[in-house]
């Protein structure tokens, strides 16, 4: 298929490329759609593969520990899903600031700044790890306060303390990933993640069954595999990223507070979304017949989690595309990439919803043999389908927000939609209206729908030329040199 016409006749993606011409007919729209589809999935596919490998690390840890005993399985699951998810979400959010800056700097041609930004993020995330240490050290009493049984909470606390090294690996892992993503060098860390997963499985078998180290062996394997990923990525950066890595630099300490503010905005934006979904389980746990309610909801959330792995990859890909094109001074390319990705993600979400509704009486068999639980899951299938559609669009727009540097604005939208509107409505429908888990989930879906609607309005009203100008100003301020006025282009 022909490349779409671009100003100056160049193809975007090259340093000298110009922006798209306005699309005037169906043929040009089809060409733009195909070009942007290829660009997005070329970035997203390795990222999704890497995320699935990381997801598999947690899954295989649970599987191997599950053969030690039921209490051990519950303890490790709670440690990874409560404490681990909390810290993972916060650290990922803090590292997401790098997606904005590295992506825009790379697009603007300031490739020398990528290594400086990464080092700055290493420093900030390392300090963040120290701030999170009390949660790890006092995991046991925290879990008891959340209502966990004493024996399970004590074992979970012990396992959590043993995974502190894994926490600090994230301070290296996330910034290095964002550094590579900004340059679309995503296949490297995908293979590193795969190798780490294979090594992790081997270590689990040796430490648990050969050395008989039990939960301690599982924690050691978890720590080592996490550091294999972090160190492997750093080795790749030093050895194969000569243009963007020029060694350690004192410039990493310059403008660090502005970087911290953007990192905190990113963390708050992401954590508000993660904690919102976790709060469904907490609210449901206080309903009558909580075992069935929580069990049925957990099955649905598990399936929703697998879909989320796909859209987290798309989130990262669209963030790279938007930040690169804004850095290049290409407002139309940024806009078109967003529209194409949102449309495709919506189609994927609808496809998942159709599959769920067709198999609503059967898919719960994979997770449970309880007929009562299977019936409860079938009743929630429609809500699961709607959630999958909403969750197909929302992560994409969040990725656009990261690519454009809108984190603070999205954080305010999340607070209003989720915690002022969605959670209270879910509580009223679930408890006051006595609709149970259906009411809780329906109310929270309304919160997600409101958030998605507001973000779509923001997206529709975005002036992409002004976004380019703001990117240019950000690069002038943090890049240490001026960007050519040629980056500022005519309006869309």
Automatic annotation (TrEMBL):
Organism superkingdom? Eukaryota
Which Pfam families does the record cross-reference, listed alphabetically?
A: MatE
Sections of the chain in a coiled coil: none
Q: Which GO terms describe its molecular function?
A: antiporter activity; xenobiotic transmembrane transporter activity
Q: Which keywords has UniProt assigned to this entry?
A: Membrane, Transmembrane, Transmembrane helix, Transport
Subcellular localization: Membrane
User: Which ranges does the record mark as transmembrane?
Assistant: 122-143, 155-174, 186-208, 220-241, 262-283, 303-324, 336-358, 378-397, 409-429, 441-460
Q: Which residues form the signal peptide?
A: none
Family to which this protein belongs: Belongs to the multi antimicrobial extrusion (MATE) (TC 2.A.66.1) family.
Q: What is this protein called?
A: Protein DETOXIFICATION
């Amino acid at each position: 298929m022909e490349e779409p016409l671009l100003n100056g006749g160049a193809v975007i993606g090259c340093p000298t490329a110009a922006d798209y011409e306005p699309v005037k007919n169906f043929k040009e729209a089809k060409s733009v759609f195909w070009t942007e589809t290829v660009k997005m999935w070329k970035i997203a596919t390795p990222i999704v593969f890497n995320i699935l490998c990381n997801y598999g690390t947690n899954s295989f840890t649970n599987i191997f520990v599950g053969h030690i005993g039921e209490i051990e399985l519950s303890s490790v699951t709670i440690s990874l899903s409560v404490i681990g998810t909390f810290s993972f979400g916060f650290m990922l959010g803090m590292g997401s600031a790098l997606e904005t800056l590295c992506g825009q700097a790379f697009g603007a041609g300031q490739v020398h700044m990528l290594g400086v930004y990464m080092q700055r993020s290493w420093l900030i995330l390392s300090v963040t790890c120290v701030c999170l240490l009390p949660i790890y050290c006092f995991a046991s009493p925290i879990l008891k306060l959340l209502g966990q049984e004493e024996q399970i909470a004590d074992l979970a606390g012990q396992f959590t303390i043993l995974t502190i090294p894994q926490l600090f690996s994230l301070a290296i892992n996330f910034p290095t990933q964002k550094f590579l993503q900004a340059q679309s060098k995503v296949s490297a860390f995908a293979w590193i993640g795969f190798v780490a997963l294979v090594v992790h499985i081997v270590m689990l078998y040796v430490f648990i069954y050969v050395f008989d180290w039990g939960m301690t062996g599982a924690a050691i394997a978890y720590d080592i595999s996490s550091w294999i990923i972090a160190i492997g990525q750093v080795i790749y950066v030093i050895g194969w990223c000569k243009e963007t890595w020029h060694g350690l630099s004192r410039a990493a300490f310059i403008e660090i507070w502005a970087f911290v503010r953007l990192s905190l905005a990113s963390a708050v934006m992401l954590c508000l979304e993660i904690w919102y979904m976790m709060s469904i389980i907490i609210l449901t746990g206080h309903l009558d017949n909580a075992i069935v309610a929580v069990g049925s909801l957990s099955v649905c959330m598990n399936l929703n989690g697998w879909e989320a792995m796909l859209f987290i990859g798309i989130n990262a890909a669209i963030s790279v595309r938007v930040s690169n094109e804004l850095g290049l001074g290409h407002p139309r390319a940024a806009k078109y990439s967003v529209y194409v990705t949102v449309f495709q993600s919506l189609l994927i979400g609808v496809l998942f919803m159709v599959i769920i509704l067709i198999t609503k009486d059967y898919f719960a068999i994979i997770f449970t043999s309880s007929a009562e639980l299977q019936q409860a899951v079938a009743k929630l299938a429609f809500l699961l389908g709607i959630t999958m559609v909403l969750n197909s669009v929302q992560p994409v727009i969040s990725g656009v927000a990261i690519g454009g540097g809108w984190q603070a604005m999205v954080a305010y939208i999340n607070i209003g939609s989720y915690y002022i509107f969605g959670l209270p409505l879910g509580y009223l429908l679930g408890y006051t209206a006595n609709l149970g888990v259906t009411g809780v989930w329906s109310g929270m879906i309304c919160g997600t729908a409101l958030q998605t609607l507001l973000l779509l309005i923001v997206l529709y009203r975005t002036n992409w030329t002004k976004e380019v100008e703001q990117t240019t100003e950000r690069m002038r301020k943090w890049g240490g040199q001026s960007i050519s006025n040629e980056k500022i282009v005519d309006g869309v």
